[in-house]
Structures are given as C-alpha cells and as structure tokens.
C-alpha cells in the first residue's frame, strides 16, 4: 500500500486489486464520526473548506485504512467501503444543453418582502391566488397576522392543497429534540440547502411558523434564490453550469433505524426541462444528505467539485443571502424547488410548526386559479413556451 504520484490520486493494493481515487473525493467522503454523523448518517464535513490541493501525508492499514491528510485530518476508510466505491469507466463526455431560465423576480433589499395577510388568504380564492403568484414569482412569501396556534397554521396551508405526509409526519409541531435523526431537529447552524433531495419527488412548498422562542436567542432564517445563483454561475462560467446540469448524484435519509430513503435514480444539482429547451425548474442542493458517489470517472469528479465549489461560493455571497428573524404570527412559505433555506445557531427552546405540499398539487391549484378550468383543459398536453399556456408554468 503506498501513495501514488499520479494526479488522479492514490490507490490501495487490496485483495490483489488496485483501487483508484482522487484526493478530494476521498477526503470529502471520509467515513469517520467527525465527517459522518453517527446518529443521522448525514455528511458533516464542509466539502468546500477542503483545500483543493489536499494531499496524503501517511497511510496506515489496521482494522481499516487510516489516512493522514495534509490538512491534519485523520481519515478512516473501511476496506469493504473502499472496494464498493471504486469505479472506473471511460472519461466523461458532456452532452448537456444550454441552461435556460423562466421569468422570475429577484428579491433585493430595495423592495419589500412579498407579503399577504392571513385574512385575505382565508377569505377566498382571490387571496389564495395572490399568495401563490408571489410564491411563483419571488420564490417565497410571508403571511402576516396569522393566529399563533398550529390549528390556524394548518388550515392556512390546506388553502393550497393537502399536506404531504413523509417520514417526518404530516403537519409538524416540533422542537429541536432529535426525535427524527436530522440536523433540522438540532440547535446547530444549518447552511443553505433544499429539502427532500433523497426523495424521487421532493416536496415543492415548505411552510414554517415560529410559535414561540423562550430562554434564548438566535435562529435567524436564511433564504437564497437558487435560480439567481444558477444564473450567476452561468454568467461567470458556462462549463461549471453544465457540470451541475449533467453530473448526477445519490442522496439519502438514513438517520432513524426504520428509514433508509433514496431516490429511484440519481439527480443533478440543476434539473432542466427536457421539453422546454433546457429550462431550469429544480435545484437539488444538500451537502448533508449527499451520499457517496462512485460511478464517475476522475475528470468528471474534478470537474464537478470545481463547479460545486463555485456554486457554493456564490450562495454565500452577501448579496445572495436573505436573512429574516421569524416571529410568532408571521408565516414563511417558500418554493423548495428554487429557494435554498437555512438558519443560524440558536439557544433556548423554539417551537415550530409547518408542513410540505407536493409540486403537482401546488401547480394544479396555481394554474386553475390563474387561467380557469376551461382554459387549462383546452391546453392539456401542450408544452409550448407561451404565457397563455398554463402548462408552460412549471
């Protein structure tokens, strides 16, 4: 067993078989308890803080392989894990289309937050339509003057459609107690991410209502417009945009003993519409839930890490971050297919409620309210990009 001088990384002589890995991939996928949470099984290492020139200082073989990295970390890699994730195929060839964008509004501090009132939404479909239009245009919306109780919040969410039930339950009413083994149920900082990357069909809408926060402070809410970030990425480096469109990744939710959820296939960070000339319609970005990917060639790995690092730098820019402090009585709802969300660390006890709504149910309600049932039925099957076509709104 020895370190390789090759730029593609280093290899192990294991069971008479050479296993090849690049440094960055192997450091990113360290299996020690500091890098993979022992309870939630989520990725804890900050991928984008790893030095690009990371190198191996020493390798030791015991009950598993231990690697001393140039950043001081001691990596741990079980033999079976290494064998399972070794992959060799022909070099990657990019055949992705150009990235396109639908019309959308970009929030800046110069404008007020998109907001509706609870009473208007509950009063009739006109208020619901105003609410959904804000969500579709801006990616998020606040609902002010909401009664501070879970029953009223649940009734508000059901004005759109039925609430999606997942392994977290249906309508949530929770505190940070790790009932569900997920970092969302802690008091820790959460970086900008999208939810449900481990589902084949991630929930489209996500709603939060802070019911109370006692005995502490912090917990500011973060939103980042993923469409705006992707647009910036494309403007700054088209190759990076193509890499995030074409390279597919596995995700998982495996914290609780009775759960190990993975999507039916791997998905890229930037999901584009095959019938609308590459129009972006979904962002999947969650470094916590990204599983170890083995089915990619070395140049594809290097290409993706460079592109992902660029995207990560963009979403951390101050002009990309929308920070708000949620208060009882003000509900936040956002498009989980577009907006990344997170929060700052907090102390004390917070009680939150909320829930998910599926994409198809949200879009159905939106199209019917915007165009009317007859117009929607007349355009069934039409995928032309036309502002009068309900099905061009995805």
UniProtKB/TrEMBL annotation:
<keyword id="KW-0479">Metal-binding</keyword>
<comment type="pathway">
    <text>Amine and polyamine biosynthesis; carnitine biosynthesis.</text>
</comment>
<comment type="function">
    <text>Converts trimethyllysine (TML) into hydroxytrimethyllysine (HTML).</text>
</comment>
<dbReference type="InterPro" id="IPR012776">
    <property type="entry name" value="Trimethyllysine_dOase"/>
</dbReference>
<dbReference type="Pfam" id="PF02668">
    <property type="entry name" value="TauD"/>
</dbReference>
<dbReference type="Pfam" id="PF06155">
    <property type="entry name" value="GBBH-like_N"/>
</dbReference>
<dbReference type="InterPro" id="IPR042098">
    <property type="entry name" value="TauD-like_sf"/>
</dbReference>
<keyword id="KW-0408">Iron</keyword>
<dbReference type="InterPro" id="IPR003819">
    <property type="entry name" value="TauD/TfdA-like"/>
</dbReference>
<feature type="signal peptide">
    <location>
        <begin position="1"/>
        <end position="20"/>
    </location>
</feature>
<keyword id="KW-0124">Carnitine biosynthesis</keyword>
<keyword id="KW-0560">Oxidoreductase</keyword>
<dbReference type="InterPro" id="IPR010376">
    <property type="entry name" value="GBBH-like_N"/>
</dbReference>
<keyword id="KW-0223">Dioxygenase</keyword>
<dbReference type="InterPro" id="IPR050411">
    <property type="entry name" value="AlphaKG_dependent_hydroxylases"/>
</dbReference>
<protein>
    <recommendedName>
        <fullName>trimethyllysine dioxygenase</fullName>
        <ecNumber>1.14.11.8</ecNumber>
    </recommendedName>
</protein>
<feature type="domain" description="TauD/TfdA-like">
    <location>
        <begin position="104"/>
        <end position="356"/>
    </location>
</feature>
<keyword id="KW-0732">Signal</keyword>
<dbReference type="InterPro" id="IPR038492">
    <property type="entry name" value="GBBH-like_N_sf"/>
</dbReference>
<comment type="similarity">
    <text>Belongs to the gamma-BBH/TMLD family.</text>
</comment>
<feature type="domain" description="Gamma-butyrobetaine hydroxylase-like N-terminal">
    <location>
        <begin position="23"/>
        <end position="82"/>
    </location>
</feature>
């Amino acid at each position: 067993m020895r370190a390789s001088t090759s730029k593609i990384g280093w290899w192990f002589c294991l069971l008479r078989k050479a296993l090849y890995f690049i440094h960055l991939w192997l450091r990113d996928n360290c299996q020690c308890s500091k890098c993979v949470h022992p309870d939630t099984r989520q990725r804890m290492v900050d991928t984008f803080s790893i030095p690009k020139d990371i190198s191996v200082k020493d390798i030791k073989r015991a009950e598993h392989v231990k690697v001393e990295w140039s950043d001081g970390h001691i990596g741990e890699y079980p033999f079976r894990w290494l064998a399972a994730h070794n992959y060799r195929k022909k070099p990657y060839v990019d055949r992705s289309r150009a990235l396109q964008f639908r019309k959308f509004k970009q929030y800046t501090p110069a404008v007020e937050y998109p907001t509706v009132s609870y009473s208007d939404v509950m009063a009739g479909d006109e208020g619901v339509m105003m609410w959904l239009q804000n969500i579709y245009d801006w990616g998020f919306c606040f609902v002010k003057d909401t009664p501070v109780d879970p029953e009223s919040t649940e009734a508000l969410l059901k004005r759109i459609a039925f609430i999606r039930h997942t392994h977290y339950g249906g309508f949530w009413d929770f505190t940070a107690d790790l009932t569900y083994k997920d970092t969302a149920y802690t008091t820790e900082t959460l970086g900008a991410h999208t939810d449900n990357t481990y589902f084949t069909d991630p929930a489209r809408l996500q709603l939060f209502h802070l019911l109370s926060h006692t005995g502490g402070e912090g917990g500011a809410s973060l939103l980042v417009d993923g469409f705006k970030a992707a647009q910036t990425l494309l403007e700054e480096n088209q190759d990076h945009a193509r890499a995030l469109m074409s390279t597919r990744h596995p995700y998982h939710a495996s914290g609780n003993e009775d759960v190990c959820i993975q999507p039916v296939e791997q998905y890229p960070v930037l999901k584009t519409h095959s019938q609308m000339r590459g129009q972006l319609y979904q962002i999947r970005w969650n470094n916590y839930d990204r599983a170890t990917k083995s089915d990619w060639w070395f140049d594809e790995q290097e290409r993706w890490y460079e592109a992902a690092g660029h995207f990560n730098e963009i979403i951390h820019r101050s002009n990309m971050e929308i920070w708000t402090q949620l208060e009882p009585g003000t509900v936040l709802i956002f498009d989980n297919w577009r907006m990344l969300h997170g929060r700052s660390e907090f102390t004390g006890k917070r009680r939150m409620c909320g829930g998910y709504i599926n994409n198809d149910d949200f879009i159905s309600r939106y199209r019917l309210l915007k165009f009317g049932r007859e117009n929607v039925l007349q355009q069934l099957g039409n995928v032309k990009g036309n502002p009068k076509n309900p099905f061009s709104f995805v």
